Amino acid sequence: MNQAVPKAQQARQTSRAVARRGLVSPMRWLLCIAFLVCGLTPARTRAQDSAAAGVRIGLTYDRTGKPGVAITPVTGSNADSVRAILVRDFDFSDRISVIALERGDAPSGALNYPVFAKLGAVAVVQAVVTPAGALHVAVHEVAQKQVILVLNMALPAPAYSPEWRAVVHAASDSIEWAVLGQRGTAGTRIAYVRGNQIWTVDADGGSARPVPGTAGALSPAWHPTGTKLAFNLLPDDGRSRIVVRDLMGGGVSRTIRVSDLNMSPTFSPDGSQVVFAAGSDGTDLYTASTAGTDPPTRLTSRRGSTNTSPTFSPDGRRIAFTSGLIGHAEVYIMDADGSSADILTSTGFGDQLYRSNPDWSPDGKRVAFQSKINGVFQVMTISIRDKSTQQLTSDGENEDPSWAPDGRHIVFVSTRTGSRELWVLDTESSRARQLTHGGRVQNPAWSPLLSMSNQP
Question: What is the pTM of this model?
Answer without folding.
Answer: 0.85
